[in-house]
Amino acid sequence: MKMAAEVRWLLVFLICCAVSPGRGETPHRKFEYKYSFKPPYLAQKDGSIPFWEYGGNAIASSENVRVAPSLRSQKGAIWAKQPINFDWWEVDIVFRITGRGRIGADGLAVWYTTAKGAYNGTVFGSSDMWTGLGIFFDSFDNDNKHNNPYIMAVVNDGTKVFDHTSDGSSQQLAGCLRDFRNKPFATRARIEYYKNTLTLMFHNGMTKNEQDYDICFRVDNVVLPKNGYFGISAATGGLADDHDVLHFLTTSLYPPGQLPVDGHKVSVEEQAKLNKEYLDYQKKLEEQKNEYRKEHPDRPLKSEFEDYFETQNQRELRQVFDAQGQMFEMLRELHNKLDEVVGRQEITLSLMTQQAGGAKVSGSQAGQPALLDTIRRQEVDAVLNNQNIILSTAREIKSFVNEVHSKAESILNNQARAPTAQVQPMGYDYQSLISEMRDGLNTLKRDIRQTNTGNDCPTTNCLTTTMFLLFVGIQMIILLAYSLYRDNKEAQMKKLY
Ligand SMILES: [Ca+2]
Ligand SMILES: [Ca+2]
């Protein structure tokens, strides 16, 4: 049942995906020429720019719009004539801010506001307290925090006064520190407002590569008023830069499936009108060109050849920039390759560590000898130590055994000597007894002889032989009994040992 539920959910998910193909897919794009300008023939002969109006100190030429020239206290602006009729958009501007000084002023602003601003306002040449979005390229460091040139976005609801003294740092929605002044190539900004996400990509003008953008900021949940006007303004102060805008290209963005259907119907009617407008414009342009050629018969030739000739300095500069551009390209390639190499190295390292881990477990042939060698040495040391210990203990045991042996020998000797020592007194006793008995007998014989020779006493009456033999027999029996008693006593003593 659980599996079935999961499968059902998966199906629902797949159906959702099929029904609304790619919420994250790239939007439909449509170039909006009515909100764009670009060279060549950016401005017409009369100085007007189709679908745009400019004022203040702004100057338009066929190549660019100089919104504020490098003179003191200049202000200018250019505004689209029509408000936009789409919700999401992308604006690509190509611009150059150049000046002789190390520091420039004041900066350039790109606007998207509910109403066209002034041509000589206080915020980078246009009106303060605007309603909508202002993107400022602020050259001059008013608050002296060494954080300019700076790019920032400020959204205003028509009530806030821009804080120039702090360079708008407290009011900015987002920003980034980028140097956009005096670059070898034109700087570019790509401002995208799509599904309430505002993104600013910036090209620093250091390379020829037109796609060399990096992100300045991306902000979600940005709500801008609908049907606003696009505009650009610029201002100079005590210091001055030329603020030139070369391209202003607007693209409307439509989420997939949201391209206006009725727009197509309208365009059928409008198309003829627009085609006519376009043809008129082309005709007018040709007429102007012809007039220009008539008025300046020598100019076209000159301008044609101007492209072929360049001064020494120009050539050197061009060569330097070309070389620099090539170096940048090579560096980027190298960087990419380095990343690739590092990635591969990491992969191989991880693989190697994995293998090493496996080798420890399985005992691979590569790691074995080194490991065994170290173990052998340790083992040999241990064995030697053990041997030494064993030798010393063996010596101790040997000396102990010798001691025991000598002691045993001495004991054995003592034991061997012991019976003689014990027997001796017995022998001595017997011998002394026998000698005593002999002495006794001798003295008895002498006494008998003396009595026999000296006194009249009858020998037979005094001591008869039977009496003598009886006496001796009794004495012998006593001696035997005594010796038997001694033997018995000794046997008992031995048993006790
Ligand atoms: Ca400033
Ligand atoms: Ca500042």
Structure description:
With 497 residues, the protein is an alpha+beta fold. It has a domain at 28-257: Jelly Rolls. It is 47% helix and 21% strand. The chain is built from seven helices and 15 strands. The strands form two sheets. Strands 1, 3, 4, 6, 11, 12, 13 and 15 form an eight-stranded antiparallel sheet that branches. A seven-stranded antiparallel sheet has the order 2-5-14-7-8-9-10, with no helix packed on it. A hairpin with a 4-residue loop joins strand 3 (59-60) and strand 4. The radius of gyration is 64 Å and the shape is rod-shaped. The two termini are 96 Å apart. The model is unreliable at 1-5, 10-23, 363-372 and 420-427 (pLDDT under 50). One calcium ion is lined by residues 138, 140, 142, 148, 167.
What's this entry about, in short?
With 497 residues, this protein is α+β, with helices and mostly antiparallel strands. It has a domain at 28-257: Jelly Rolls, CATH 2.60.120. It is 47% helix and 21% strand.
Strand content: 15-25%
Shape: rod-shaped
| Major sheet details | 8 strands, antiparallel
User: What is the CATH class name of the domain at 28-257?
Assistant: Mainly Beta
- Low-pLDDT stretches are 1-5, 10-23, 363-372, 420-427
Helical content class:
40-55%
CATH topology of the domain at 28-257: Jelly Rolls
What number is the mean pLDDT? Answer: 83
Named once each, the bound ligands are: calcium ion
What distance lies between the first and last C-alpha atoms, to the nearest angstrom? 96 Å
**CATH architecture grouping of the domain at 28-257:** Sandwich
Kindly name the structural category: alpha+beta
Number of DSSP helical runs: 7
Write the H/E string, N to C: HEEEEEEEEEEEEEEEHHHHHH
- Assembly classification: single chain
GO molecular function: D-mannose binding
Keywords: Disulfide bond, Lectin, Membrane, Signal, Transmembrane, Transmembrane helix
Subcellular location: Endoplasmic reticulum-Golgi intermediate compartment membrane
Domain L-type lectin-like: 29-253
